[in-house]
């Protein structure tokens, strides 16, 4: 007496394996995230290769011009900006802490002058519309470079 498969077992053998929609979703989500990361890094590398070399003098604007008399005394200072540059040690720690707490909380933890977490959260807030206006993800370092070296016109390149 040979054992023949039952009708139910034959049907199970003919059926396609059960689909796993959740696994497929997460697989494609992971592939999408990886593609966005690769595209983002590629774009960054493309623009970074042409970035200018920046010196200390690039970061300090000329400010104003002075007209001196024959005796060497300043007669008048011309220009819109009247700046006096000071060393970091001359700025009170309380002022440094106040600026950093308002503008860039993680300033002292940034190793390369960028804050990926801040950039990502600003992008999400702008995309979802959860903020009142557009949020920026730039750090104090990025703002200094932008204002000192590049124009203030909005551009992806800077």
What descriptive keywords fit this protein?
158 residues, mainly alpha, Penicillin binding protein transpeptidase fold, two-stranded antiparallel ribbon, 6 helices
Structural class, from helix and strand content?
Answer: mainly alpha
Low-confidence stretches: none
Strand content: 5-15%
Number of helices: 6
Please tell me about this protein's structure.
The protein has 158 residues and is mainly alpha-helical. It has 2 domains: 20-50; 55-158, Biosynthetic peptidoglycan transglycosylase-like (Penicillin binding protein transpeptidase fold). Helices cover 47% and strands 6% of the residues. It has 6 helices and 2 strands; from the N terminus they run αααββααα. It has a two-stranded antiparallel sheet with strand order 1-2. A hairpin with a 5-residue loop joins strand 1 and strand 2 (74-78). The model has no long low-confidence stretch (mean pLDDT 79).
Task: Give a short synopsis of this structure.
This protein has 158 residues and is mainly alpha-helical.
Furnish the topology, listing elements before pairings.
Elements: H1 7-14, H2 21-48, H3 56-59, E1 65-68, E2 74-78, H4 93-103, H5 116-128, H6 140-149
Antiparallel strand pairs: 1-2
């Amino acid at each position: 007496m040979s054992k023949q498969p039952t009708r139910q077992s034959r049907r199970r053998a003919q059926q396609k394996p059960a689909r796993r929609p959740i696994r497929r979703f997460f697989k494609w989500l992971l592939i999408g995230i990886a593609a966005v990361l690769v595209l983002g890094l590629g774009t960054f590398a493309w623009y970074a290769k042409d970035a200018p070399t920046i010196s200390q003098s690039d970061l300090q604007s000329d400010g104003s011009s002075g007209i001196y008399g024959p005796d060497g005394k300043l007669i008048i200072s011309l220009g819109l900006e009247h700046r006096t540059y000071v060393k970091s040690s001359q700025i009170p720690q309380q002022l440094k802490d106040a600026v950093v707490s308002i503008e860039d909380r993680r300033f002292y933890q940034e190793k390369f002058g960028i804050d990926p977490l801040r950039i990502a959260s600003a992008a999400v807030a702008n995309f979802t519309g959860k903020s009142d206006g557009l949020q920026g993800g730039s750090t104090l370092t990025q703002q200094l470079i932008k204002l000192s070296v590049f124009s203030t016109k909005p551009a992806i390149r800077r």
